[in-house]
Input
Amino acid sequence: MKIDVRLGGPDDVEPALSIYELSNLARRRGDWPSRQARLQHVAANLRDPSSWFVIAHDAAEAVAMASVLPFRSDDGAGPPVPHTVFLDLIYVLPERWGEGIGGVVLDAVIDEAKRRGMRRIHLWTHEDDNERAHRLYRSRGFAPTARTTLNDRGQAAREWLLEM
Output
């Protein structure tokens, strides 16, 4: 398996959005009431010049994506925190889960963040049903913080942090 990961551009927004949508539909078993609003939000983030994303290909097929935003103080409402980013999304096509592609994409995100002079990467993940993601983040040096919240579906989520 040769996975090529590169920074995404305008032509990569739709393939990245498709990966996000297909993965969410699989994870949620088709139950996604806020689907259209969330897709519009993610598309806007992918096009936002203050953010960046990576896209992974296996030959000509886009198989994974990750989106990174400025990390903002005051739970996202404040100004950007210097040298800190927020890993908003990381998704792999469902039929490619378990192949190690998420690790390749996460490594690319970490490398790009370092190249940009970042010192910290924050992210949030579900607490209860996401052990595969937790293993991935731990394997790359992320650690859970004490911060927790409930997501829009009432599920517990925890913040994770990588200090580089």
In short: The helical segments are 13-27, 35-47, 101-115, 131-139. Strands lie at 3-7, 52-58, 61-72, 80-92, 120-126, 143-150, 156-163. The longest strand covers residues 80-92.
